[in-house]
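Re-running the complex after MR caught last week's input typo. The corrected sequence lines follow. Everything else is unchanged.
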Amino acid sequence: MNKSELEEVKSNKKVRGKKVPLKIIPLGGLGEIGKNMTAFEYNDEIIVIDCGLAFPDEDLYGIDSVIPDVTFLIKNKEKVKGIFITHGHEDHIGALPYILKQINIPVYGTKMSLGLIEIKLKDHKMLNDCTLVMVEPGELIKLDNFKVEFIRNNHSIPDSCSIALHTPIGVAVHSGDFKVDFTPIDEKMMNLQRYAELGKRGVLLLMADSTNALHKGYTMSEKSVGETLEHLFSKASGRIIVSTFASNVHRLQQISDCSIKYGRKIAFSGRGMENVSEAARALGYLFIPEDMIISLDEIKNYPNDKLTIVTTGSQGESMAALTRIAASTHRHVHIQEGDMVIISAAPIPGNEKAVSNVINDLIEKGANVIYKAIQDIHVSGHACEQELRLIQALLKPKFFVPVHGEYRHLFTHAKIAQSMGVDKANTFILENGDVLELNKTNGEVTGKVPFGRVLVDGMGVGDIGNMVLRDRKNLAENGIITVVVAIDMKNKIIISGPDIVSRGFVYVRNSEELIDQVRDIVTNVVESCLDRNITQWAEIKNSIRREVDNFVYDRMKRKPMILPVIVEI
Amino acid sequence: MNKSELEEVKSNKKVRGKKVPLKIIPLGGLGEIGKNMTAFEYNDEIIVIDCGLAFPDEDLYGIDSVIPDVTFLIKNKEKVKGIFITHGHEDHIGALPYILKQINIPVYGTKMSLGLIEIKLKDHKMLNDCTLVMVEPGELIKLDNFKVEFIRNNHSIPDSCSIALHTPIGVAVHSGDFKVDFTPIDEKMMNLQRYAELGKRGVLLLMADSTNALHKGYTMSEKSVGETLEHLFSKASGRIIVSTFASNVHRLQQISDCSIKYGRKIAFSGRGMENVSEAARALGYLFIPEDMIISLDEIKNYPNDKLTIVTTGSQGESMAALTRIAASTHRHVHIQEGDMVIISAAPIPGNEKAVSNVINDLIEKGANVIYKAIQDIHVSGHACEQELRLIQALLKPKFFVPVHGEYRHLFTHAKIAQSMGVDKANTFILENGDVLELNKTNGEVTGKVPFGRVLVDGMGVGDIGNMVLRDRKNLAENGIITVVVAIDMKNKIIISGPDIVSRGFVYVRNSEELIDQVRDIVTNVVESCLDRNITQWAEIKNSIRREVDNFVYDRMKRKPMILPVIVEI
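Corrected-run output:
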């Protein structure tokens, strides 16, 4: 019996001979892309993997971001031992500033992940209040019931890991976001041997990335992008402007390597790009000689064919560098005939139109725009079907839970696992909030904890609910008519108004007649109420709302929000 | 000299020997997908090709549809001789009800196009006021200066045509929307021979569909979809639910043929699907034996494997049949284990998320969902690069104007034309409103007519402008705070209020303290103004707006619209 097995025995004894089940509780990331977060509970110990945000759907008017509901963790505060971060993407670390304010626990992650988390916590002025624990890939963090092992994988960010949770009843492997890249840029391949070793010893549960489960075959190596870049750089005679995700440091490395080879100075544009490239260089993930980097102020001092500008904005985000370049509102970079613009990314679902608009603007201004649809200038960071089959073959888990995907991705991934030998009864397509209890032989969903989306708007976290959103949708589509009338309640007469003020409804200067008619209607409604001795505000307001609503709908087939205000004098 | 040549001579004489130029004036469809409309002016005659609408972008809050600005046509009312419709899709006929109300001119089109236009004009209760002239593919409509020839092409709707405009200075060919389908369902192939004949005699100008200019190769024949359908129908054991565009009558025919072959009754669901399938059958474009069609009420009388349900909703539109089926709100159809749902369409850019949601919901309810990303169950109606090259080869035009596309499509199509021999100086990437003047040897953009997007919201056409849209955006993202205060101007005191009413801002019950603080701020502002003898409403309102805005932004980093109303007593 080796040391770790001995500890396992000890740890089992702690629950006094009785084997308690392992609980798996996804708080986000299932049935959606984003806000990945999963809790694992054993005995009196809870650990959490990842703490991500989601970007708001278009029906979430005015919302900045969406984070998971962590009521369950707060209720069990004393049990929660740490958050373990697989990698530094927003959908895995973005909720940390909000969650750590509610429950301050240690955060474990690799160097690159922590570097990005630090930037975030600094922004929120809370870096000094938080405990960040750096781990190496391969390292094992020992808690009372859990041992948390970081296993290197490959993804579109350096230092990404899968996590193996060693528990008294067996090993649970969480793949994290991953692909199998046989030729990664940093030459650090996913630790498939450790996967195989764990599989050989027996894996209780696998939870794995479903993002690309619908795609057959293999995801191409990051290196293949380098070949396309090399080809493009070799024939470019003007400036090269490349847009990609700032966190895709290996992409930045390849862009930089090409630039260096062709004697092009490199300038970074966009706050995220500047921050991340600086952090990645400081931490030893991005290697660019100091003298090859210039600031945007300096680009005017170099000939076009000696310049590469690396920007944010690959998703057409309205304030990002490339979008500003396309709209001619960038302070330093204006498109010239002969510029080559490379968008080295694919549009995230929902961003297709914004990206198209940027491409059209750039071409119209004379740029030669290279993008994914016309050239292989991007590869995914997520495993396709064959890679998903590979990790099934290595791990041979007893139970399987597909994660990180919409329902169709989870469903398809479950089918893949079953075709690789996982029992159908041992495959669980979970929803956020589900409590899956596993023992060595059986699994069962036994309950539900609070779950859902908490909306972040400005400084407000969770103060925007469905009613406010419904109002915003209504205001967005129809505008508002405010009706103010001052009533002398003693004498039952209108003493001022009605004043009609509208916003987002019609252009008032062209609609004076309509507004006059609304005013007449309100006057009639109020006088009629007063004549009939109706003096309850609520009733008068309802009458105003109903009559104005009917009139406007009849006339215009529109339903603006009607907001009556009665001033009682 | 044959008869038509004689007429050409006569027509030339009308301009008294002096050759006037042909003017081409796109009013919509350039730099965008949608609202296709082009005016052609020669001498004292104007004709128009197509009259389409565009679907609103997501930033057009509350807008139902977008139509072209036709100020130019209204100004030249007496010159405009007719609107010639290439085919019956919304982006080519959808603006007719609005435009015909402004300028009532004859509409020429093939039988299927007019059938769909009639449905539309009936909805607007204006069918009897309009002049619809039916033409056959191959027919020539003779006006004073123009002869308008309809040439059959292939597209994702029956009876689609290109148009050749014979003018005194030469022939202009407008491709309409087209693909080259060598095996069309109705066996009526695009009239490539007529294209060749015109090309042989000399074509002055080609304007052609750029939608798929970025796609290499050929667009597959509609018949290839039939093969996939046949395969799916042959293995289905439950109900088959197929969603597609109602106007894709050839697709409906193939779905019906498969259903008939496998003894499945056919039920149509969704208003558009019911209307169009009925019209297409009545007009002789869709052939289904009467006894194979059943109503939705009757589906319960048939076993699952004897049923095909054909629905609207292939774009995830919120009220369409398939969306209601997915959400379990359809009155007749509820997903059962074993249902096969075929989405025989591709998401139009912008609809990707809505379609994904429908797919996820259907799979979650137990349906086997077949869609474009996982099986070849749809083909485009637009020509790819090789087909675009083919018509260049047949027509060999002197001048070329790419149409029907965003800038990148037009740009790429222009390059294709140039590589086929069109002179670069004779290639014009136009914008809406441009006036291109052509004579036999030269072309030049000589001016601009009014152009742009007219917004339709309910019954209102063009009454929503940028100010209203800006307000709607602001309301959508931040909500509104209405501040009402009644002031006794004689005594310079507040006699009622301030009343604070917010919508879409925060959930008021949880924010009483905040609202109280806003009330205090307004009281202070107003009292301070009155103390300082400021009695101009505008100034008091501005002070209220500024102070409340600052307070809310400091506290919450939000910027709701502030609407102060002062009631003077």
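None of the earlier attempt is carried over here. Confidence is low (pLDDT under 50) at residues 9-17 of chain B. The longest strand of chain B covers residues 493-503.
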